[in-house]
Every structure is written in C-alpha cells, then in structure tokens.
Amino acid sequence: MSASDHPPTWTFLTHHARVLVELARDPEVRLREVAVSIGITERTVQNIVADLFRAGYLTRERIGRRNRYSLNLDQHFRYPTEGDLPVSLLIGIFTNRDLGKP
C-alpha cells in the first residue's frame, strides 16, 4: 500500500486559512463553492466566515443577492510566534500576488 492509497489525515493549513485563501482568489465566490473546493460542509464555511468577520480578517458587502468579501490583509496572524506577520504573506503565497512586505 502506498501513501496515495489513503486520504491525508492532516494538512498544513487550517480550514480557516483555506477559506481565507479561497475568498482572496474570488471575492464574489459562493460559500457553497468554497465548501466543495475545500471538502467541508457549507455550514462549516459559514461558521468560519463568521469567525473571520468577527476577528476583523474580512468584511462583507451585500450586492443584490450575493456577497462580496474584502480581506483585511494587514491583520496579523493569531498565533504568538507569527503574530508580528500580516496575513498578506499567506495570501500572497497561495494567490501568486505580491501583496507587500511586512
């Protein structure tokens, strides 16, 4: 049996990070699409978006029947060892954008 026969039991990025990256890639994406892309439930994505909103990592603007998400890329990581670094570094890596230096 090879490692490719079994799905991974852990990943390097949390679901919160993956949702943030998906919203950075497409600010008008539907949360249902984010859920499918990441492999989690839509309800879990909704809860994560609510967490990120409350923590100041994103804002939402209602446009008709859709939401548009804007990220606060100057917000810093929550873990103390990375607390002096902005999340723009993570987003830049996964969206291939130069979002500035810390």
In short:
With 102 residues, this protein is an alpha+beta fold. 39% of the residues lie in helices and 12% in strands. InterPro entries: HTH_MarR-typ (IPR000835), WH-like_DNA-bd_sf (IPR036388), WH_DNA-bd_sf (IPR036390).
Can you give a write-up of this model?
The protein has one domain: Arc Repressor Mutant, subunit A (Orthogonal Bundle). Helix content is 39%, strand content 12%. It has helices at 15-25, 31-38, 42-54, 88-95, and strands at residues 58-63, 66-71. It has a two-stranded antiparallel sheet. Strand 1 (58-63) and strand 2 (66-71) form a beta hairpin. Helix 1 (15-25) crosses helix 3 (42-54), helix 1 (15-25) crosses helix 4 (88-95) and helix 2 (31-38) packs across helix 3. The longest helix has 13 residues, at 42-54. The relative contact order is 0.15.
